[in-house]
Design brief:
heterodimer; A: 498 residues; mainly alpha; 21 helices; 2 strands; 75% helix; B: 100 residues; Helix Hairpins
């Protein structure tokens, strides 16, 4: 066959077309922004938004296609498509939040938007990874860009501090993940997820020390990325110090991508040795839920409170992973609802914020309902969804994960989780009380002049309600996505049994 | 031929030195050097395993890791410089604007 066979090229490039679009867009934005003033970066933002939308359409276009590209390094299935779509939506929301924020805070637009696109590239690569080294590369593409995004307000001491803390702990955790990959490679002789699954399927390796140490190291690495207790200490500082749209992007995009890779490696690749790591995850999930919720109670800064709340939600998701393959669809559905709810909550925080400082305290929300009833109403929807009040997305997600875990006999863990939900209601309702029953707080300025931000809040609120009230199609696509990844590895038939 | 155990032990020791360095030292630059040491310990493990298994994967990964480490160094040093400009310190204990 000629090396210039066009058909072969098309076959290889078609599945990664969305990734190519994002890469090209990132470079175009960087070049186009060379002569753009920091205070006038809206145009670059709109260009970014448009290219994300194009990538979204292309991802929809290859929906339902299955296959591997680049000798198994990239695996395209409903799982990768599901995460790609949600990640792209999260990125579009982030850009909508950033349009005004970036210009007002004089964030250099070319760097900001192109780094945003590059980190989306890394996230999508993680969701579609077919071997461990692509997971590593995707993770680093995502992380290195987000380190810079966290510190992009160069003259702001808090932003600096957030960047260095994120960088040091992120690079530290990467070392653990990579050492884990090396040990798993040594134990199984391959870095591809499919062959790893096949090598472990016989069950003969269940007590191989090299493999167990490798899995443990990878757990530490992923634990850092999803901010699980006891590897969470970076999260609150980084979430507080980073520019708020970047915080939203970290709380949603980074978490989605990390969980995508985490689920693919552990619930598909290492599924046969589940007994070994599920016990560890049991403990980590319990610690993460309890730690996150208890410390969130005493927070006075809304970004910090949402950071601890994000840690607690990672705990609920880890509960699902600890409960085994059956709860896979529930995890994906939960992530979908979590994404919209958190994006919405951070958008409201941005609406209140001025010059990156004022408006970040919970006390600033006092009396918001009287001055801005619609904004307060939207925030109420997001907080109630985070707290798990029916019929919103957060409630259905929690119910789904907890009931699947209960079916698997994880009664103790579910009791801990339900108790934690009660604790979490305290700090979410605290903000509600401030908004509806107290006086004072800060004025919200120029909301009508920020149509993109208002649209982001409105769309997020709509999605939070819709996904909760009419969950069937989303649950179906979450299940379809999860089984398309694990089905390839032969778990499907067992998992689909009632 | 050097047994695989020797090389894996050496890699484990170097990795442990790197971890200890990150945890114990308080100078950000030294912490960053320790992280690089961890990555190089991993490279050693990859090369050893790759040559033992006779597969190219291990050797190729090392190049990826080195490239990523270089990118990480560029970003990390940039962040450290911007901190030094604002605060005139590279000590982790001085970065206490945000706590709890």
């Amino acid at each position: 066959m000629s090396p210039f066979n066009l058909a072969a090229i098309n076959f290889v490039w078609l599945p990664i077309l969305p990734l190519v679009v994002i890469t090209v867009a990132a470079m175009v934005v960087l070049l186009a922004g060379v002569r753009v003033d920091d205070g006038e970066s809206e145009g670059l933002g709109l260009l970014t938004l448009a290219s994300l939308a194009v990538a979204f359409v292309f991802t929809l276009g290859i929906l339902g296609q299955y296959g591997v590209a680049f000798a198994g390094a990239i695996s395209i299935d409903s799982f990768s498509a599901f995460f790609d779509l949600v990640i792209l939506i999260a990125a579009m929301f982030t850009v909508m939040m950033s349009l005004d924020y970036a210009a007002e805070n004089r964030i250099p637009g070319a760097e900001y938007y192109s780094l945003l696109l590059f980190s989306v590239l890394g996230m999508m690569l993680m969701a579609a990874a077919g071997d461990l080294i692509v997971i590593f590369l995707g993770l680093e593409t995502m992380s290195i860009t987000v380190y810079v995004l966290a510190g992009i307000m160069r003259r702001n001491a808090k932003s600096n501090e957030a960047a260095i803390k994120y960088f040091l702990l992120g690079a530290f955790s990467t070392g653990f993940l990579l050492y884990g990959i090396a040990l798993v490679y040594g134990a199984t002789g391959t870095i591809k997820l499919g062959p790893i699954h096949d090598a472990l399927a016989s069950g003969a390796m269940g007590s191989n020390p090299l493999l167990l140490l490798g899995i443990g190291m990878m757990l530490i690495g992923f634990g850092f990325k999803v901010a699980a207790v006891p590897f969470h200490m970076w999260a609150p500082d980084v979430y507080e110090g980073a520019p708020t749209p970047v915080t939203a992007f970290m709380a949603v995009g980074v978490k989605l991508a990390a969980f995508a890779a985490f689920i693919r490696v552990f619930m598909v690749g290492f599924v046969s040795v589940g007994a070994q790591w599920q016990t560890v995850l049991w403990v980590v999930a319990a610690l993460t839920m309890t730690g996150g919720n208890l410390i969130a109670v005493v927070q006075t800064n809304i970004k910090r409170m949402l950071a601890y709340s994000a840690i607690a939600h990672a705990g609920y998701l880890l509960l699902g992973m600890a409960a085994g393959v059956r709860s896979g669809p529930a995890i994906l559905y939960y992530l979908l609802g979590y994404a919209f709810t958190n994006l919405g909550a951070f958008s409201v925080v941005i609406a209140l914020e001025r010059r990156g400082e004022v408006g970040n305290q919970i006390s600033d929300f006092r009396g918001l309902a009287a001055r801005q009833p619609l904004l307060a109403g939207a925030m109420a929807i997001f907080l109630l969804s985070l707290a798990g009040v029916p019929p919103l997305a957060g409630f259905v997600g929690k119910f789904y994960i907890f009931s699947e875990a209960l079916h698997q006999g994880y009664v103790g863990l579910v009791i801990i989780a339900v108790l934690n939900s009660v604790i979490s209601a305290y700090y979410y309702f605290y903000v509600l009380v401030a908004m509806y029953m107290q006086e004072g707080g800060v004025e919200v300025e120029r909301l009508s002049a920020r149509p993109a931000l208002v649209a982001a809040i409105g769309l997020a609120a709509l999605a939070t309600i819709l996904i909760g009230v009419y969950p069937q199609p989303y649950i179906a696509s979450a299940a379809n996505a999860f089984y398309s990844a694990s089905g390839a590895a032969g778990v499907r038939s067992a998992a689909l049994e009632p | 031929m050097i047994p695989l155990t020797y090389m894996m032990s050496l890699s484990a020791v170097i990795f442990a030195i790197g971890v200890a360095g990150v945890i114990i030292r308080r100078n950000i630059l030294v912490m960053f050097m320790s992280i690089e040491l961890m990555l190089n310990a991993v490279n050693l493990a990859f090369i050893a395993i790759g040559s033992r298994l006779g597969s190219m994967d291990g050797q190729v990964i090392v190049f990826f890791v080195m490239t990523v480490a270089a990118a990480e160094a560029a970003v990390g040093l940039g962040i450290i410089i911007s901190i030094f400009r604002n605060r005139e310190t590279v000590h982790a204990d001085d970065l206490t604007l945000m706590r709890w």
